[in-house]
Amino acid sequence: MKPFTKTTTYLPFTLLLFFVISCSGSQEKESEVSNLGPIGFQLRLKSIPKELKGESVSYSVKFYFCPTVTFKDCYTPVLIHTHPITKKIQSSSESISFKQETPNKWTHLSVSLEGIQKVYGKYSPGHNPFWVRNSDSLVKSPNISHEFQFVSQENLIPNSKQEELALKFSPILVFHKDKKYLPTNMEKYSNFFQSKEYTLPNKDIRRKSLGQTTWNYVEFPDLRETDKQTHLYYHVRYANATVSGTQKEALPGFRDNANYWYEVGNGDMVISYWIWYDWNEGPTKFGNVHQGDLESYALLVSKEGKPKRILLTGHDHILLDTDFRNINSLKNHPILYVAKGNMGSDGGNPTSAYGGYTVKLHAGNAVFNYISDPWDVFPSFDPETSIIIIPINLSEKDLSNVKIGPSTKQKITPVENSETEKDKPLETRYVDARNMIKGRIQKLVAWEEPGWIGQNADKDPDGHHKVDPKLSSFFQFQGRLGKHPRSDLRIRELHQYGESPENAPFKTNIEQHYTFESPRTERSYSDRDGNYGPKFLGDDSTPQK
Prior knowledge:
Elements: H1 2-33, E1 39-46, E2 58-64, E3 79-84, E4 94-100, E5 108-114, E6 123-124, E7 130-133, H2 136-140, E8 143-149, E9 151-152, H3 159-168, E10 172-176, E11 195-199, H4 206-209, E12 214-218, E13 230-238, E14 240-244, E15 256-263, E16 269-284, E17 287-301, E18 307-314, E19 317-323, E20 329-330, E21 333-338, E22 351-352, E23 358-360, H5 366-372, E24 375-377, E25 386-391, E26 402-404, E27 429-431, E28 437-446, H6 469-476, E29 480-481, E30 488-490, E31 495-497, E32 523-524
Protein name: Lipoprotein
Keywords: Signal
């Protein structure tokens, strides 16, 4: 009886407290979504490119009621109003002021600059649309001032510097001896390049945010047995870079990968690399099968060119983001391991900074986990079982005594969830890898800024944007590369056809969101059993000179 008596004693007080909190929460929420009167806008254009002279420009103001991103009508504007600049553009700056009535309830508003298609992908006006969230401060001072300042989207790092850095940190790639599909090149498909459209999946957020129902893809013939020369694609930029739509105030899904801009910042640079495979077959014989595969990694380097961090991606995730000293490298070339699959499959080509371990993957549901039991199986650095593809500037002599392990006094961190003794990492050892050489990276290809291809430069220190004609279509294409533009699960066949990869550097999936972020913090991805995180912690003695 005593517990019951105690409960009833506190019940009225509890109900009263709950009522007070609820009212206060309701008032707070209401203040976030309501506005009492019109808002004043003061908008300005600066550094307008000469290509826009004579163009008609306008501003579109849209209000949204989106208390949560799962709200049914979240992406349907509750009010849209267009405010044109009365005269056509004649100078390098323009301004406009106006009052805008507001809907009764709204949480977000966006201001879009329209009529600038002539410079799209060449000059960025900053975040477009520019986003504002409703807040108490806006209610107290209902005025919004914003300046759209155009900046060239050219890469300000000289081509020679980009090439120097890209070659300096190009990888040593390690494969199982029986790996069927080694990296090749995209140029061999240039004569077959033809853009097509496919219907976006219903769950694709671009259907909500942009009203986009289709996307692009290119279907290639099966040329896997021809032109196996390995090329490495790269892009070097300042680490301080921003993509439109990544404002913290923005609704999700408005990211615009063709509208970005660079700032020198402290001089740090990011070198992004893409490795092309003709085919993805794995991680088990039941799937994920698709044409084309772009795997990637990135390095954060100082303005002096000293490596600071490395970031690797795969399976739509950031697999590893760690200090460069926590991996093995030879003369600045990181040693990277490419997994094969299990059950006889060639694998999905994910890249790791460590060898000799496995990660069990999620197949999408418990049934497929049981049936296919997919793994990433990473090779060891071992002349008996593995082969390597090396940068063009390394000699066989350089590979006569390759350090594998931390080379420090501290003990190596054991691998978690190892399946066998063979999976466990060894203490630091030195390997003669000369007989492991299967091939070389024959060519490094710089990824040019798409909007500037084939044009004379404005700010670029090289003065031009020349591109091999075989590559211009790839560099300018936004969409998927391969004949499977979207995934297709065929349960009767127990087979999964995967999505062909998004073209770099326009990837919008999770794994490539880093493309305009600096590798910056300790991150590693864990799956069903195992992870891709550091297998040892190194120091200044770990990188092999």
